[in-house]
Structure formats: structure tokens, C-alpha cells
Amino acid sequence: MAKKYPTDKYTPRPEHHFTFGLWTVGNTGRDPFGAPVRAALSPVRIVERLADLGAYGVNLHDNDLVPIDATSSERNQIVREFKSALRATGMKVPMATTNLFGDPIFKDGAFTSNDARVRAFALQKTMHAMDLGVELGAKTYVFWGGREGTEVNASKNPVEAMKRFREALNFLCEYAISNRYKLRFALEAKPNEPRGDIFLPTSGHMLALIYTLDHPEMVGLNPEVAHEQMAGLDFAHGVAQALEAGKLFHIDLNAQKPGRFDQDLRFASEDQKGAFFLVKLLEDNAWEGMRHFDSHPYRTEDEDGVWEFAYCSMRTYLILKDRAARFSRDREIQALLRTIAKRDVLPAALGKSLKFSRALASRLKDYSFDLDRLREQGLKYERLDQLTTELLLGVR
User: Fold this and answer.
1) Are residues 218 and 361 in the same domain?
2) Which of 282, 301, 329 is the endpoint of a domain?
3) Nearest to 97 by CA among 56, 139, 44
4) Which are the contacts of 174, defined by CB distance < 8 A and separation ≥ 6?
5) CATH number at residue 79
6) Would you place residue 6 in the very low, low, confident or very high pLDDT band (cuts 50, 70, 90)?
7) What distance in Å separates the CA atoms of residue 277 and residue 294, rounded to the nearest whole number?
8) Which residues are registered as beta bridge partners of 197?
């Protein structure tokens, strides 16, 4: 019998737009050093249980649902059963992607492989997966270049690799346009693993590539907490850049211990302050996208633990959302922020903006700043950080 969770203000509901991948709750606990510890869950069961827990939808790689060696009739039967489960539960498929890393054919990459036959097969596989995603209702299509990289630098020309990756994205954009698919593509960066080094390792690299594409308006980002933290970066800052550029098309929520392999831990199980500022950023900007959890239950868990993991991922987000609202109501915190905001005013002699004009440049060059005052002023950030910490610890 399914466990019943208490109903309170942190209870997940479909309107919160929480999603999971079939590969997340469906993870069997296999790792490089050990065999699976849980039985595989069918896609239909995953849909039904996530719906019971209050999720909005489920996402998938092509082969999460349809095995790579399935016949046409087997494929159609699997999809019919899956669509029936979606209808019965009201669950959606907002995002789809392609597994271009699992099969041995992709051992040296997919879109950047040195073998033109592999690159062509990767396009073929992706087109079929896009067809499946659109059939299931997906509006976003994610690209993670899981093996687009190298261990032997001499084996690949990195300039040529970028050209190949761009050519593949341009091809697939044209395929979507030619089929009138209403898809937006979201690129997902990762600095390393499973390759020694992966091309386009951070969201900043991906963002730079987007503006060289034939259809940059169709392509944005799918940043992931763990992937940016593996590179030692502040995740919220990368997400903010994507938001400001209008390129945050999707997001992967999980947790990561710095300096480790890609752990895909439950959201906010590590670095609660970082998770708080991420949630605050998304909520303050009223971001309308899916809150997608790309993480795995601990290998210690049975199936009951899998559903505990899924429920608590959503619950933790809602707790942090509530804390973000408290932050906005906290009188002392807001007073400090108003003090900070007062410094964002230019001297009257310079005007109201630092937007360039010849007149402003002339005034600015001649203006005399009180440098001693600027050097000596305290900014009260220690107090602000302590108040934030106390709020997160539940004493404010």
C-alpha cells in the first residue's frame, strides 16, 4: 500500500509544476562498483506513483520508454500504454531528450564523433526521439552532450568539434521547423564525466555557442545544479545570466558536494543556502518553467525510499519557497537591503544613469570622488548574511 503523507502548506500539487525524469526515480542504484539494488520500475508505474505524490509531469530519454532494439509494433504498444497512463492521471510530458551516451556506438561522442557514420546515426536517433517527444506533448527538447569530449587531446581537433556540434544543432532546428514542431531546444553543460573533458563545459560556453547558430531564437539553456558546482561555480549566478538573456528554457534541480564526481543528490540535501538563493531567484522572477528534479535516490533505498526521495524533493523546494517569502517580509533584512539600495544613486552632478553620452563622459572625467569615504564605509554584509542564516535555520 502506498504511503500517505501529511497534508500541509508544503504538500506538492500539480500547479507547482514539479517534474521528474523516468531515469531519476527509475534509477536502480547501479554504479561503477556495484550491481543494481532495486528492481526496475515500469514507466506506467512511475507515472501513477508520481501523480499520487502531486507531481505535474514526467520527462524522458527516448530509450527510458522504448528500448533501443524494440520493433515497430513493440514501440507502438509501449507508447499506447504510456499515453493511457498519462490520460488516466492527468500527468504531462513537458520535456524530452535523447540518450546519445549509453550505447557503445557513442564511446567517442555523438555529434562530435570523428566517425561521420556515428554523427549521422546520432541525427537519425534524435529525429526519431523528437517525433516521440512531440507525440507525447513535449514543448522543450534537451541536449546533454554526455560523451562529446575526449581523454586524448590529440584525437580530436576542438575547432572541428565545435563546427560539428553546430552543424548538428542547425540540422535539428531545421528538422523541427520543417515538421512544424513547436519545440524549444535547451543545451545542458557539464565539465567532465563520463569523459575526461567534455566540450562546452559550462552554461557560459553553451550561451556563447547559441548566438552562432542559424536559429538562436530556438535554443536556450538547461543548467543543472551539480554540473555547475562540479566546476566550482555558483549555480544561481549562472541561472541569473540565463534568465537575464531570456535563455532559461529548462532547469535541472539536484545537489552536489564540491570536488566530487557527479552525484545527482536529492535537491537541497547539500548547500541549503545555495538552494535557497536559487529558489528565491526563480520565484522572485516568476519564472514559468518546470521545476525538474534530475537526481537519484540513494543506493541504500528500496522502492519505498524512492517515493520518499521524490516526495521530499518537491517538499523541500516548497519549504525554501516559503523561506524566500519570509525573507521578503523580514523587517530587518529588508531594512538592510533598502540601505544597500540607497547607495545605487549617482551624485546629482552626474545625472541618473551611466549610459554613455559625450556630455556624461566629460562630467565623469572631471568629477572629484570622495575616495576616502568610499574606502572606509562598511557595507553591513556580515549582518545580512547572519540574518539570512538565522532565517534558514528557522529562528526568524
Assistant:
1) no
2) 329
3) 139
4) 214, 215
5) 3.20.20.150
6) confident
7) 19
8) 150
Domain that holds residue 55: 14-329
Q: Is residue 6 part of a domain?
A: no
CB 346 within 8 Å of CB 352: yes
The catalytic site residues sit at 61, 64
Q: Please tell me whether residues 195 and 300 are part of one structural domain.
A: yes
Dihedral, 105, 109, 114, 116 alpha carbons, nearest 10: 60
* pLDDT digits 0-9 by tens, 267-276: 999 999 999 9
Cell triple for 66: 522504448
**Residue 247 parent element (H or E):** none
Element (H, E) at 80: helix 72-89
Helix/strand/coil for 96: strand
Instruction: Give how far Cα 286 sits from Cα of 155, 279, 322, Å.
Output: 45, 10, 14
Share of the chain above pLDDT 70, in %: 99
Assess whether 344 and 292 both reside in one domain.
no
Please name every residue paired with 224 in a beta bridge, in sequence order, or none if there are none: 252
Decide if pLDDT at 1 tops 70: no
Task: Categorize the per-residue pLDDT at 123 as very low, low, confident or very high, splitting at 50, 70 and 90.
Answer: very high
Instruction: Name 31's bridge partners.
Output: 34
Rg over CA atoms, the chain: 24
Name the domain boundary from 329, 358, 381: 329
Mapped onto helix, strand or coil, the DSSP state of residue 197 is strand
**Cα-Cα-Cα-Cα dihedral sign, residues 360, 366, 367, 373:** positive
Same-domain status, 237 and 362: no
Alpha carbon distance 227, 189 (integer Å): 7
Say how far residue 183 (Cα) sits from the centre of its chain: 17
Asked whether the beta carbons of 238 and 206 are under 8 A apart, the reply is no
Cell readout for 233 is: 561555480
